[in-house]
Amino acid sequence: MNAFNIFLGLVGPWQIAIIVALVLLMFGGRKIPELMRGLGTGIKEFKDATKSDSDEDTKS
């Protein structure tokens, strides 16, 4: 079983709804798209870095 399935087993729909409500209260509706864009950019950079790192390992 992977970590995502374990996470889904521990967090139910009510907990997810509460987390979403808290995020909306903390950041407001206008900031969330900006935060998600930044998160997406960070994930993309991380994937690119790990891919380039693994490419260097296979060359040597």
Quick overview of this protein structure:
This protein has 60 residues and is mostly helical. It is built from two helices and no strands.
What proportion of the residues is helical, as a percent range?
over 70%
**N/C terminus separation:** 33 Å
What is the radius of gyration computed over CA atoms, rounded to a whole number of angstroms? 17 Å
| Structural domain count | 1
Number of strands: 0
SS-derived structural category: mainly alpha
Shape: flat
Largest sheet: none
Total count of helical runs of at least 4 residues: 2
What does this 3D model show about the protein?
The chain is flat, with a radius of gyration of 17 Å. It contains two helices and no strands. Helix content is 92%, strand content 0%. The protein has one domain. It is an all-alpha fold and 60 residues long.
Sequence-ordered SSE layout with sheet pairings:
Layout: H1 3-10, H2 13-59
Feature tags:
60 residues, mainly alpha, 0% strand, 92% helix, flat, 2 helices
